[in-house]
Structure formats: structure tokens, C-alpha cells
Amino acid sequence: MKKIYYDVEKCLGCKSCEVYCAVGKSESKQLFRAVFEEARAYPCVDVKQVGKNSFPIACRHCQDHPCVDACIAGALCFDAKAGIVQHNKDKCVGCWLCIMVCPYGAIRQNSKLKIPVRCDLCQDEQAPRCVEACPTGAIIFVEEEEVSKLKEKKKGKK
User: Fold this and answer.
1) Domain with 4 in it: what CATH number?
2) For residue 32, how far is the Cα from the chain centroid?
3) Residues with Cβ < 8 Å from 76, sequence gap 6 or more?
4) Which residue, among 153, 121, 144, has the nearest Cα to 21 in the 3D structure?
5) So what's the pLDDT on residue 140?
6) Are residues 105 and 130 in the same domain?
7) Are residues 52 and 11 in the same domain?
8) Looking at the structure, do residues 16 and 31 belong to the same domain, yes or no?
9) Does 10 reside within a domain?
């Protein structure tokens, strides 16, 4: 199963991933129109800046998935076959427990809609939008085994 891998050394902090994600989640799917939509879409990825470094944060679809265990409404479930945490907006009560237990700070509030904003790996697309939008290749979508190889390769360079 494929996972998103972030190479923070390549991230420019341009936020292209955020824009592309939000537009893709919008009703109109068009940049100019999406900005003016009443139920404005929030990006599932959030680029953080720490000093000179930037890095994207999004749901890691953890194998131990503390957000699923914390969900009192049963709105979150882990699909073991696909390797992703899925969210059922209709069941969500907006209690924000998933936000509180996420070890990565990857889930945020959409207070207007009273639902959490979290990555779904763009299940409606071939690949996550953030991957396609990243101009430097800092965000890649690869098989899980490949992530381990990339990490080892990176350790070898240091």
C-alpha cells in the first residue's frame, strides 16, 4: 500500500500543496471560485515554518491510529486493506477528540462545519493532490517499503 513521504529538506514552504488540496476539496474545483464559496474547503495538508525550515503536516494514517480509538461517535475507522483512516462526516459529532490525540498535529478543526479536517489521500484521484502540486518533489507517494529505503538512504548521506 502506498504512503505519503515528506522530504523536508526539499520543502520551500510555497504552500502549493495547501492550495491544490483546498481547491480539489472545494465544491467548484476552481481556484477563483473556491475562494468565495460559503462552505470554503480547508486544505488537509498544513505547511509549518520553523526558523528557516518548512515542512508539510498531514495525516500519517497510523497503524495504531489513536484518532480512531478516541472517536466516540464511530466516525473514524481504519481500513486495514487500504491502510488508511477513513472519516464518515455524517457520524461525526465534532467533539475534536481525534484532534487532541493525534501525535502529529495533523488533524485540524473546521469550526464552521464542525468536522475535523484530515487527509484522505485523495481517494477520488489517482494520487494525492499535494504530491502533484509540489514543485520540488518534497512530497512523494510511494509503496510503504520504499519509504523505509528512502529513510535509510537519507541516513547514509549524513
Assistant:
1) 3.30.70.20
2) 23
3) 65, 67, 68, 85, 86, 87, 88, 98
4) 121
5) 93
6) no
7) yes
8) yes
9) yes
Task: With beta carbons less than 8 A apart as the criterion, state whether 122 and 129 touch.
Answer: yes
Is residue 101 included in any domain, yes or no? yes
Range of the domain at 11: 1-58+120-143
How far, in Å, CA of 114 to CA of 89, rounded? 10
Number of domains in the chain: 2
Written as tens digits, the pLDDT of the chain (158 aa) is 888 999 889 999 999 999 999 999 999 999 999 988 888 889 999 999 999 899 999 999 998 999 999 999 999 999 999 889 999 999 999 999 999 999 999 999 988 888 999 999 998 898 999 999 999 999 999 988 887 787 777 777 76
Cβ atoms of 57 and 105 closer than 8 Å: yes
Residue 104 makes CB contacts below 8 A (sequence gap 6+) with 57, 59, 60
